[in-house]
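seq as requested:
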Amino acid sequence: MIKRELAVLTLGAMLLLTGCGNSVETVYVENTDTEKAVSQEEETLTSEVTTQTVTEKSSAITEVQSLGEEDLDPETAALFEEEKKKLDGLLEAINEGIQPGTAGSTLSAVPYTCDLLDWCMDTELGAEEISAEVVSWMAENGIEPEKQYEEDSFYAKMSLAGSTYLEITGEHAEDFMVSAGYEDEKYPWSEKAIANIETIMLAAGVGSEK
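struct tokens:
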């Protein structure tokens, strides 16, 4: 059954100029299920608007989080690619030029390590991009982790570069570089360079203790 609520509205004492004296008129107003239906419809619309707003915000956040290197402007993307190529070239030079186990191998590794530090100081690549590029270069060149401890392996060469890096950024760096007969205009290197070369060493599987 339709539930009825009677709301009594007293309109006040009205003087009816009908010759019958004063009278009070009471008006009864019905409140049916129609009002409840309207209320429920309003709640539904509010819920739909709220859901739509949350969904739109979620989509916007997802879109921002998904922005990657492919979303860079062409000029910046080209710059990043150029810097990756330079890093690849430096890794190739280390792999071909550093000879662990030979006489004076640490001193002969100085130019390669300095070049790497120079790149680390100038690059605009972040740690994730640097690490990914090192891993990618190693994979492309067939460098296998199980062979990393062989004397002529890339791991051994990077280990030597890592030891050299600690020397040329340490307390007696200048003396060491003089002994190597090498000067670098970017010396002393910035904290950014130090952080980036650490990233490279770790990506190559070489840790350093400083």
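The radius of gyration is 39 Å.
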